Amino acid sequence: MIPSRPARLALFAALPVLALAGCDRRPAPRADEAADPGAAAAASLRQSVESASFTPPAPAPETGDAAAGERPGTAPAVREALPGDARPEPAMVRAQILLDRTRFSPGIVDGLGGENTRQAIAAFEEAHDLPVDGELDATVFERLTAGDGGRVLTDYTITPADVSGPFVGSVPESLEAQARMQTVGYVDAREALAEKFHMSEALLDALNPDVDFGRAGQTIVVAATGPDALQDEVARIVVDKAESAVRAYAADGRLLAFYPATIGSGQTPSPTGTHTVRAIAPEPNYTYDPSRVSYGEGGRTVIVPPGPNNPVGSVWIDLSRDTYGIHGTPDPAKIGKTASSGCVRLTNWDAEQLAGAVKPGVKVRFT
């Protein structure tokens, strides 16, 4: 994969149950909430997220029978998302946002947990000299909340820029059809806002029921993510193929950020050894050239225009190994869950953060 225009320089293991503190002390609903069950549920979810705390898991049932819809021995707060399961767990929402704010990205904030969250927890534990098991135990939860006591959700007023697009309605699957588009933009304002705040669209909906996200001036509830930029320049990047993760380090060896990633596959593996960053291309085109890549089924060269739903997302970090790079994705929910064509794929917001802190010449080591 390579951008087609000149680059411009720029950068579960089953986990314990998370209980909610103070859930029985909610204030009486306002009149408008009482009249609108959806608004009341959203207000309850918001308060539950802000007040979430950790308690040890209850003993597993001796019979092995699980509650309806649950797998035996799996904590509901951090289980892998099951098909059709979009119920955010308040404590997991809080933990994921705090991890995101401390630069240990869980990928998409969905309140469901999963392997990306487990790996982010493990990286957080390692960085804070805690036993590394990837479990969100009392020690990890206390360290997360002690380091950041601010609210994890915030009000946001939708701006005219948020709803100006261009929005494309839908993105065709074939590269040929995408190549005929003027831009491979967001489908709609809802998708754009969810990505802006690192959230799943399902969580955005749960916090804002019946909202028309395409209308400016409305105030919505979103994740209170941290600053977009890293604190220091990145001097070294390590791509861990076995872990499906990327780590960015400062010149003094400090870990600046951890990102879950999709890294190659058996048929199209990622490179090995050490390479360097050649250039950064914000908003890249995507070129499929069958004469230069080892994936695909031949055919003709196809150039897909820029856009966040472009196959390489919103930014491309070009590597010295020809046709390989670190880039964004049109589908953040699939990071770490699918294979790539050999490149390193991050969420758009993680790729943009990394791209904003690297310069040509930075070493990238694949392990």
From TrEMBL:
Signal sequence, start to end: 1-21
Record's keyword terms, sorted: Cell shape, Cell wall biogenesis/degradation, Lipoprotein, Peptidoglycan synthesis, Signal, Transferase
GO molecular-function term, one example from the UniProt record: peptidoglycan L,D-transpeptidase activity
Biased composition (Polar residues): 45-54
Region span, Disordered: 27-89
CDD domains: YkuD_like (cd16913)
Metabolic or biological pathway: Cell wall biogenesis; peptidoglycan biosynthesis
Alphabetized SUPFAM superfamilies for the sequence: L,D-transpeptidase catalytic domain-like, PGBD-like
Catalytic-site annotation from UniProt: 327, 343
Cellular component GO terms held in the UniProt record: extracellular region
Residues forming coiled coils: none
The keyword Signal belongs to this UniProt entry's keyword annotation: yes
Annotated L,D-TPase catalytic domain residues: 235-367
Swiss-Prot/TrEMBL GO biological process terms: cell wall organization; peptidoglycan-protein cross-linking; regulation of cell shape
Family of this protein: Belongs to the YkuD family.
Entry protein name: Lipoprotein-anchoring transpeptidase ErfK/SrfK
Organism (species): Brevundimonas basaltis
